[in-house]
Design goal:
The complex is a heterodimer of chains A (111) and B (114). Chain A has 111 residues and is an all-beta fold. Chain A has strands spanning 4-5, 10-14, 19-25, 32-38, 45-51, 56-59, 62-67, 72-77, 86-93, 100-101, 105-110. In chain A, 0% of the residues lie in helices and 54% in strands. Chain B is globular and about 35 Å long. The chains are: A mainly beta (111), B mainly beta (114).
């Protein structure tokens, strides 16, 4: 049973527009959420995180929104750039337990 | 500075053979994690070390899998009697501690069992 779900395997966006990647979770005890970006043949790279006590965290072009009542978080990338094309993983943890990852969403930013 | 490194980058082995995968974490990182990523899936936790000891090995799929970190730095993941289902990318990550914060991943070892 997947505790972290990324229901869109892929997403295509025009350069300059907004990319919205979604993630749902089932474990209400998760208290920390992270987004990782992965290029081919490389390991995942940390992008941005959010604690469950917040509902928004922003870092440059990247913003993560958390809706605890809906058990949903999203990553917004504005404006999208071709270099953002990668697989994005949502991950969550409860306290000091290991990270639980979603299956990933492949983002393609078209120039 | 140097990131997490993993060797080999690719390993092809025959079913039933023994393999060792190595991870060199970022210097000074006390926590080290092993994950397995199968095709079309996200990374799945296997085991993590705090220093030399395995703090949580609940993700190891069975007793064919074993990992060590004898000096609290380099770690080796060992797989006995490999099976075709073990084929995956094995990722290692390290962090300063196990509190909130990001883990830094290596590029992974792609294991193919024929």
């Amino acid at each position: 049973d997947q505790q972290v779900k990324q229901n869109s395997p892929s997403l295509s966006v025009q350069e300059g527009r907004i990319s919205i990647l979604n993630c749902d979770y089932t474990n209400s005890m998760f208290d920390y959420f992270l987004w990782y970006k992965k290029y081919p043949a490389e390991g995942p790279t940390f992008l941005i995180s959010i604690s469950s006590i917040k509902d928004k965290n922003e870092d440059g072009r990247f913003t993560v929104f958390l809706n605890k009542s809906a058990k949903h978080l999203s990553l917004h990338i504005v404006p999208s750039q071709p270099g953002d094309s990668a697989v994005y993983f949502c991950a969550a943890r409860e306290g000091n337990t290991p990270l639980v990852f979603g299956k990933g969403t492949r983002l393609s930013v078209i120039a | 500075g140097a990131g997490v490194s993993q060797t080999p980058s690719n390993k092809v082995t025959e079913k039933g053979k023994y393999v060792e995968l190595r991870c060199d974490p970022i210097s000074g990182h006390t926590a080290l994690y092993w994950y397995r990523q199968s095709l079309g899936q996200g990374p799945e936790f296997l085991i993590y070390f705090q220093g030399t000891g395995a703090a949580d090995d609940s993700g190891l799929p069975n007793d064919r899998f074993f990992a060590v970190r004898p000096e609290g730095s380099v770690s080796t993941l060992k797989i006995q009697r490999t099976e075709r289902g073990d084929s995956a990318v094995y990722l290692c990550a390290s962090s300063f501690g196990t509190g909130v914060g990001e883990q830094y991943f290596g590029p992974g070892t792609r294991l193919t069992v024929t």
